[in-house]
């Protein structure tokens, strides 16, 4: 089991570590260009490639999407409760609990832990959460997204293109399937490199609250994911992916939005960095429980 866990987590840690070391050494990394490339081309291609080559049951896709909606709602309420309990700004704490790092970390971990089928389910969770991120998340940062901006978002466009593939069991033409597979293949490595670069730019403060709230975000996310999966009577693989995606650390983009809105960016940075570090220790425990049940 230890060897399997190491095989799952080591690629994530190593590639993100390369990005971190690259940035700390003073080398140039065009973060804005890479982020735009991943958002506009890489991620939509990964979505189409994964969902087209995986025989994903439409009911499983609906189940993971519904689970994501319920988990997101519960975690938002938990964030609001903690903001009052710990006397924190709710616009700081609620997004941290609402939006975990289901892309940069969640997708590769789901792939290496549960295979292509697990990745397809993780993509379903990621796509559903992206709808909240590009609406509620942007609104909380002080910038309301228009319906036109939302409909032009490449990730959401890929969702609309993928739905007929899932529900009508369609196949992409071979030339298009090969193209999106090639483009999608760059996405996860670039996501992890960018994660490492982003973490290198964050300065740690508010260490105590960051560690405490970061641990709560991961553990409560896993618990809520487990409870909702049990209530929905999900199949083991779908349930496992729901728990793992729900237990991801605070997403880096929460920090970027906090900087843009000038809303306690140092506190948000602490939550991002502390929860990511804690995830390296806590996620193996979660995977150790679920991997034997689905493999």
TrEMBL record:
This is AEC family transporter. The chain crosses the membrane at residues 6-23, 35-54, 60-80, 92-113, 119-138, 150-168, 180-202, 214-234, 240-259, 271-291. Belongs to the auxin efflux carrier (TC 2.A.69) family. It is a multi-pass membrane protein. It comes from Phytopseudomonas seleniipraecipitans. Gene3D superfamilies: 1.20.1530.20. Pfam families: Mem_trans (PF03547). It comes from the Bacteria. Coiled coil: none annotated. GO terms for cellular component: plasma membrane. GO terms for biological process: transmembrane transport. It is found in: Cell membrane. Keywords: Cell membrane, Membrane, Transmembrane, Transmembrane helix, Transport.
